[in-house]
Amino acid sequence: MQFTLFSTLALFVAAAAAGPLEARQGQCNTGPIQCCNSVQTAKDPATSALLGLLGIVVQDLNIPIGVTCSPISVIGVPGNSCSSQPVCCEDNSFKGIVAIGCTPININV
Fold this sequence. Notes:
Layout: H1 2-17, E1 34-41, H2 45-54, E2 64-71, E3 85-91, E4 98-104
Antiparallel strand pairs: 1-2, 1-3, 2-4, 3-4
Signal peptide: 1-18
Subcellular location: Secreted, Cell wall
Keywords: Cell wall, Disulfide bond, Secreted, Signal
């Protein structure tokens, strides 16, 4: 009984000490990691205007929108670097013009 309690406690302590996880290649569950020229919220005037021109309606104006995005297929290969903002986005179905629900990630792991 004490061994089980100690083992469980040790597991939680180890998990807490591990620190935050960072997305690595292949860990973007919604598609390939994207490299976007900028990431703004939908309430940003320029981003809002772009969404309007494309006929895209978002329910939450605080949702991060990636603008001018392209996929990063293989990290570490010359020519596949991202000098702007690497992100993982929920909806990349707008041909790279915009991507919706983007979360910045660290690809330098």
